[in-house]
From TrEMBL, chains A, B:
Cellular component GO terms held in the UniProt record: aminoacyl-tRNA synthetase multienzyme complex; cytoplasm
Domain Aminoacyl-transfer RNA synthetases class-II family profile: 27-294
CDD domains linked to this entry: ProRS_anticodon_zinc, ProRS_core_arch_euk
Keyword Ribonucleoprotein (UniProt): no
Domain comment, as recorded: Consists of three domains: the N-terminal catalytic domain, the anticodon-binding domain and the C-terminal extension.
Function: Catalyzes the attachment of proline to tRNA(Pro) in a two-step reaction: proline is first activated by ATP to form Pro-AMP and then transferred to the acceptor end of tRNA(Pro).
EC number(s) on file: 6.1.1.15
PROSITE patterns linked: AA_TRNA_LIGASE_II
This protein's name: Proline--tRNA ligase
Homology family: Belongs to the class-II aminoacyl-tRNA synthetase family. ProS type 3 subfamily.
This protein's encoding gene: proS
Quaternary data: Homodimer.
Amino acid sequence: MAKEVTSRAENYSQWYNNLVVKADLAENSAVRGCMVIKPYGYAIWEKMQHELDRMFKETGHSNAYFPLFIPKSFLSKEAEHVEGFAKECAVVTHHRLMNNPDGPGVVVDPSARLEEELIVRPTSETIIWNTYKNWIKSWRDLPILCNQWANVVRWEMRTRLFLRTAEFLWQEGHTAHATEQEAMEETEKMVNIYADFARNFMAMPVVIGHKSAHERFAGAVDTMCIEAMMQDGKALQAGTSHFLGQNFAKAFDVKYANKDGQLEYVWATSWGVSTRLMGALIMAHGDDNGLVLPPKLAPIQVVMVPIFKSDEEMSNILAKMREIADSLKSRGISYKIDDRDNLRPGFKFSEWELKGVPVRIAIGPRDLENGVVELSRRDELTKESVPQEGLADRIAALLDEIQNNIYAKALAFRDRNIIKVDTWEEFKERIVQGGFLSCHWDGTEETEERIKEETKATIRCIPIDTAVCEEEGKCIYTGRPSHRRVLFAISY
Amino acid sequence: MAKEVTSRAENYSQWYNNLVVKADLAENSAVRGCMVIKPYGYAIWEKMQHELDRMFKETGHSNAYFPLFIPKSFLSKEAEHVEGFAKECAVVTHHRLMNNPDGPGVVVDPSARLEEELIVRPTSETIIWNTYKNWIKSWRDLPILCNQWANVVRWEMRTRLFLRTAEFLWQEGHTAHATEQEAMEETEKMVNIYADFARNFMAMPVVIGHKSAHERFAGAVDTMCIEAMMQDGKALQAGTSHFLGQNFAKAFDVKYANKDGQLEYVWATSWGVSTRLMGALIMAHGDDNGLVLPPKLAPIQVVMVPIFKSDEEMSNILAKMREIADSLKSRGISYKIDDRDNLRPGFKFSEWELKGVPVRIAIGPRDLENGVVELSRRDELTKESVPQEGLADRIAALLDEIQNNIYAKALAFRDRNIIKVDTWEEFKERIVQGGFLSCHWDGTEETEERIKEETKATIRCIPIDTAVCEEEGKCIYTGRPSHRRVLFAISY
């Protein structure tokens, strides 16, 4: 390998940390819990943004931008919301520094204290609903379908690159509706868009479901989510969509005049995915050689590595590669010719494997003579000699095949590891091995808490797929009657 | 008018404020100095971002993301930098709130005080150069060409929507180079990209030049800029590109091994444009009826307003409009059919004029019969009856014509208002009327300060166009010898 990465079997967690850093995706910064997203990592995030943004716009949403800061008093207006966020927020108290009167450097100017402290947004429901109040007068002003791409800050004590950082990037949709029905439909529509995106672009199967009351977003009436399974069998919540009822409308007094001229409170949703998806992407598909990127999100889909001894060989091979590059470009396939002259081909192979580039082309002098190239696929680590003729078409088809294959592998793994469990003994035994355990639950928060205390497992979701889950049974923990199975897992 | 806007002649400043709010671009938020960018305004910003991002990538730059927070001690490392930013920054001192022990609401938890305060980035040179330190070992690691799209905060005391806000959105490029020459070339390349963007997309002529030492970015060796002229004759600095020399490399000890293995300090540039460009766009082209958007940045290029009395008329006209819409769509022209049934056509006309939509199509029952439409252009407020046949081609050509016409008008206005002035009496008389005064200056900061004190005018730039500016003369204020003219103006 170009750079040493711990194997998954040895230490999955270490493998992940290694990969993020060594594949040049991100690194820790000098600021506790805040990460630097490096160009290669950011290029993947941009591809995610591009597709999601398109999907949002196709469903009628517009982007807007709301302030980074939230007045402290706003947070308190929705009781559960403040409960959920007050303990982990960055607080701005002053607006000026001054020269240190007692030595070098600068200190906070005590005379520049803010009248009211400002919170760096952990999420924007409060500032947005305070704004919507002025935008909404009548039913004609509804629905409002806004999305915001932004940074948010939650002061997490234990952070991990992409998975849990103090600052992260995300999008947050905030919609306002005239009816409960319409807001509920929006909540479902958006969780379905997230699921589509996860499946079709990230090649990552997900389970769509509702959170239990205990795991809901602070201030939501219902939280829907997509849950993905990582290769260690742990769950990763990859996106959430909240039906907020009239909670924020009531907290910020947002009413509209209906068609009969009567004032009613507005109904709300909010929904978001974040740079956490980068963590999911890495953990869902990576192997011991590095990242495995689905072609649809790979910043470089094809890398070309020349193999040569003399300058003449190099220039002939590079000429051929530029020809291939043109044919790839005309098909919208992204590529890179790795013409660095100070590194051996084997080193380059390892580096591009580490970075997860889906397809590699190598050409040596004999390949050039024979009109062939060596074509390798990252997902299966296989290679074959193929004709230069028709190469771009072959690669276009191969990229599709890789995209599908990565999904199929993840789906097979996931399905193998969703297991129906009906006894508490089996639950305790299996949960430590990872996977989603499909079990009956008595529906009480108390039982949920007990199970978490004893096993660290939480209810990841109550799946919407009733065909699979709805059946009569007995709670795995208390034996009380239950009408449907839910999914338990240990999560990120 | 659909919504009352003060005329430019009456009060230009009020006209601007009205327009921003009434055209639904942005509004003040509940947080002092922070704005809400509304969907229509954000859609224009997105178009700007899209073009700039493409131009950056075409010239080899990649996007990345660096932390929102900067440790207080970092700011102090570059002496001039901290001088420039310490007095206007938001300071995070705590990381937790708690329930108010003395009443309702939440208060800052005194036990959650940060060891070192964090500054919300006013610009990112310090955190980025602290990061680059670990990325750069040898000449092979250079150049680094990163850009970041981000929010920044500068605690301005007097704010105006888009022009001067506490929080604003921008991009900041930060590059690292092996040689002084290369960094200087990068500085120039980027200011030229900004100028191209201003001219070709914003339809806004700019003067490219260098800032005087006094007006330089805090920490730069040289600051280049583009200066645009607003309709009141004031200058607006629309973008800056800084040659930072080795200042930040020295402050953060960033060295690279050159080809001979010797350690040298790295050379730097940084460059940025912000949501301030939105202010420039509005003020450069708007008229008393509202915004005038250049077609290349208009979220809606063509609006269609049906004129009807009966439901049948409406449905026939809308059918025709959908047909036209398809032909526009196939040419990549954006459109909106305004089918609201509760507003009169005249009201709609005014509203879309206010919003600056470049082209309007109106169709009434008689137009439908005669196979024509009424086609209006926003820039000239003229209309004509034209055949439905070949309409999309005609509109495509018209959009180009409007784009060019808007630029030509702004250019003619700008050129009329760049005036050579050679006596102090004339300077004082003319400067209050607006415009750029091209004058000789003795090159001293003292003279610059005096002129500012007496007239509020500053040196906007020392233009790079030597053909126009290089000539011998005498300083307008002191009479001392001068080798070139510089541009003075009162600025936003």
